[in-house]
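Re: your question about NADH kinase pos5

S., sorry for the slow reply, the queue was backed up all week. Below is exactly what I fed in.
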Amino acid sequence: MRAPLVLAGPVRAGLMRAAASARCVAPARAIHLLRELRVPAPWENAKKPRLRPYVPDGPADPDSPLHASPAHRTSVWSSPPTSILLIQKPNDERTTKAMGEVLSHLTTTYPHLRLLVEAHTARDHPDFENLYVVGPHDAHLLPLHTHMVLTLGGDGTVLHVSHLFSEGECPPVLCFSMGSLGFLLPFHIDSMPVAFEQALNGPVSVLNRARLACTPYHANGELLERCGDVSEEGWQVMNEVTLHRGRHPHLTIVDAFYDDQHLTEAVADGLLLSTPTGSTAYSLSAGGPISHPEADALLLTPIAPRSLSFRTVILPGQGEVRLQISPRARSPAELSIDGREVCELHKNESVVIRKSEWPMPCIERPGGGTGWVRDISSLLHFNVGFVNKSIKKGHV
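Result:
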């Protein structure tokens, strides 16, 4: 058995200060780093626990990849998961307290599980040892060591998980709310013990929320390196890809292509391409339609267009969209993915977007259905009418 790593320097000092504030005494604490774990061999990674489609007579072909299944299905684990990533909303007292209760339950009831946490979670909970801390440069290791993700917080916490797994496969995600409402939060924190046990043992209901694969290019067709590291699969985006004029005073001019056919020239504050999941986010605020998360579609929505006739275009999900800065544009446009600014695109530079082969598998409530109908009614008050106050009071 590997001896636990005892940290020195700023990381250990920060953890010790957190422990001292919580307990007034700061004994040495064994801290593990994710990067210290042995990297699984390719054959080991191929056999790690994954959710597979389930039929009453037994599991389907174990070689069937996760993304080849329908969007919503019942699934079982290929083998029991043993490594769980815990993600909490930072700087929130209620979420921090709830995470302490989650850690207490998991370490007591499931001592065999390896628990991975971010640095702020380790600092917030100094009483728990044998946690594996994910460093700021360990994102590439997460797919190798994570079998399932548990989140505490709002929809933004789920988007953070998508960002952590932005270069490939994302493990199943079990999302808990703290009482707030959200489109991505099927479970309340009070149901955590039962919901986690069901998710761990299966079968479970899973909704594969489509993501986008986004890649920026130079005018000469080469990858745009100044936008940062990007893999061959592109960045994985859960809600939307946005081109916006940002701080520049002029309207941006963007040429939109679908499968290399010129669709339109957009003269607007910006242009965004969203997933069905993202249809209730920025796209909705820009005047786009509401889409069911299981729809196989891409939503192209203008942001404050100059033309009053420019409306959202719903495109087939299997095509490729290219958004290119027009040579007539008077200023660059800011490229953002899921609200994170990446870089600026200049004349003739472009971003190519297609449906990703790596969706985000979100564990849903048992019994079928996604809760989407309930959510658009409770969160958006979809098509809720009103009663004229004078009529209600009996006035004519």
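The first strand starts at residue 32 and ends at 33. The mean pLDDT is 84.

Happy to talk it through on Thursday.
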